[in-house]
Prior knowledge:
Elements: E1 13-17, E2 22-26, E3 39-42, E4 47-50, E5 62-66, E6 71-74, E7 88-91, E8 96-99, E9 112-116, E10 121-124, E11 138-142, E12 145-149, E13 161-165, E14 170-173, E15 193-196, E16 206-210, E17 215-218, E18 237-242, E19 245-249, E20 263-267, E21 272-276, E22 289-292, E23 297-300
Antiparallel strand pairs: 1-2, 3-4, 4-5, 5-6, 7-8, 8-9, 9-10, 11-12, 12-13, 13-14, 15-16, 16-17, 18-19, 19-20, 20-21, 22-23
Amino acid sequence: xxxxxxxxxxxxxxxxxxxxxxxxxxxxxxxxxxxxxxxxxxxxxxxxxxxxxxxxxxxxxxxxxxxxxxxxxxxxxxxxxxxxxxxxxxxxxxxxxxxxxxxxxxxxxxxxxxxxxxxxxxxxxxxxxxxxxxxxxxxxxxxxxxxxxxxxxxxxxxxxxxxxxxxxxxxxxxxxxxxxxxxxxxxxxxxxxxxxxxxxxxxxxxxxxxxxxxxxxxxxxxxxxxxxxxxxxxxxxxxxxxxxxxxxxxxxxxxxxxxxxxxxxxxxxxxxxxxxxxxxxxxxxxxxxxxxxxxxxxxxxxxxxxx
Length: 307
């Protein structure tokens, strides 16, 4: 969105240290070619950056960055998924999972791959039993499985949840979740997968899912934030901040000019909400970056919707 042939594509970056409130430039030597909407996953030792695109292409290339050695190393494109932007990425403990996303025309994928950084090798994720291609599903890594709930499937919206087992390369269906929607806020809190609000139209409810029992429970409505949805890679972040607790901030209203800068914290332990104040910049940070550091949530960059 908002990316065209006249846009400037960037191939530089920096590391931010929240303890010292300082930035350090990342070397551009060996870095991936300039692109937007790449997928970046932290493995515990390197950052794997893959895919994304420019005005003319959806890319299958990528690199991994070692923040200790401060060096980049290209990763193999052999067996990698079809080039795409805005794909969902997670670290399984041994592999980087990349799934979904769209091409430069906005057409969604239901394919993906897993990347082994030790052997520099890709393995295709099966499509047998997989969810159909969809925009703005709610996706999370839940201990040993990838969870995909809801989404805009083109001819309507979904209420289904699908679980991918990376160890066996198989998909299974769970019991249906909240009423059909796309763009719901969701994360794995260590015990439950949450799916709250979303569109269309805007929803004022949510549920949390326990995969061992394949059971959804309704989230308490009292104290919840205003209804909103989270367009993929545009605005809206949901992160586990501690066991049983999920932070949900940002998001979009019922039109493309309404953006939220606050949100709520949901506890699945007590089934209760706590209000989160607006962030101090006042800007929407559309297409910005939101990251939980382990002690605080950092929002950076993007634009206001017009600038």
